[in-house]
Amino acid sequence: MASRSTYLVPMLILGTISVMGCATKGYVRSQVQPVNAKVDQVSKSTDAQFKQTNGKLDQTSQQVQTNQTNIAANKEAAASASSTANEALNRVNQTQGQLNDLNNTVANLDAYKLTDHAVVLFGFNRHNLTAAAKAQLDKVASDIQGEQRYFITVTGYTDQIGPTSYNDVLSRERAESVIRYLVGEHDIPIYRIHMVGLGKMHLVNGGRTLQDRKESRRVDIGVYVAPPLPAAKSGGTE
What's the pLDDT at 38? Predict the structure, then answer.
C-alpha cells in the first residue's frame, strides 16, 4: 500500500509548474503590452505623418498646376506682346520712311517746279465729284506715273454766297473728295498731298457774274516735281 507522501510529491510538482506558468504569462504580458502600446503609438504617428505628407504633396501638385497655367498664360501674353511690338515697329519704320521722304521734299523745295495744274469744278453747295472731274484727276495721276520726287497741292474754294464758316467747311470737303479719289483710285501716297480749304477767298474775277461764281466753286490741283537725285558713287580708289 502506497504511502501518502507518494501522492503528495506529484501534486506539489504540478502546483509548482502551474504557479510557474501563471508567473511566466504575467511576465510576458508585462513585457509585451508596453511594446504593443509603443507600436500602436508609432503606427498612429506614422499614419498622421503619412496623411500630412500626402496633404503637402496634393498642395504641391496643385501649386505646380497653377504655376504651369501661369507659365502658359505668360507665354501667350509674351507672344501677343511680341507680335504687337513687331507691328508697332513696322509702323514706325513705315512712318519713318514717309518722314524721310517728306524731309527730303521740304529740304529741297527750291528744286521742285510746277509741272501740271488742273481745276475741278463743283455744283452749288456740292462736294461730290462729277464724271468730268474724275477724268481730270485720272489724267493728273497718269502724268505723275514714274516720278520719284513730287508732291501735290489740293486747294478748295467756294463762291461768296453763304456764311464764311460754312464756306470754309465746304471748301475742305471739296478738297477731301479730290484726295480720297487720288489715294483710293490711284494709290497716291497720302503724305505726298498737301491740302487746304480757303472758302470764299480768291474768287474768280471777284465773283461778279454767274460764270465767275461757277468757276469759283473749285479745287485747284498743282503737281510739283523735282529732278531725280544723283546716284550714290560706289566706294573704292581710282
Answer: 67
Contact (CB, 8 A) for 163 and 111: no
* Other beta carbons less than 10 A from residue 57's beta carbon: 10
Query: Where does a domain end: 107, 133, 150?
Result: 107
Which residue range is the domain that position 102 belongs to?
A: 1-107
Is the residue at 237 inside a domain? no
Give domain status of residue 238, yes or no.
Answer: no
- Assess whether 196 and 138 both reside in one domain: yes
- Backbone conformation region of residue 113, classed left if phi is above 0, alpha if psi is from -120 to 50, else beta: beta
**Residue 181 CB neighbour total at 10 angstroms:** 19
Q: How many CB atoms lie within 10 A of CB 179?
A: 20
Domain annotation covers residue 231:
no
- How many domains is the chain partitioned into structurally? 2
Q: Which of 76, 107, 138 represents a domain boundary (last residue)?
A: 107
Measure the CA–CA gap between 101 and 150, rounded to whole angstroms: 10
Cell of 148: 520719284
Whether residue 181 contacts residue 128, with contact meaning beta carbons closer than 8 Å, is answered with no
Q: Tell me how far apart the alpha carbons of residues 183 and 177 are, in angstroms, rounded to a whole number.
A: 10
10-residue block means of pLDDT along the chain (238 residues)?
56 59 60 66 68 75 79 76 73 64 61 93 96 96 92 97 96 97 96 96 95 97 90 52
- For 103, what's the count of Cα atoms within 13 Å in the CB-facing half-sphere? 6
Residue with grid cell 511680341, as numbered in its chain: 82
pLDDT at position 238 is 45
Does the residue 233 lie in any domain?
no
Q: Residue 181: CB partners within 8 Å, gap ≥ 6?
A: 129, 134, 137
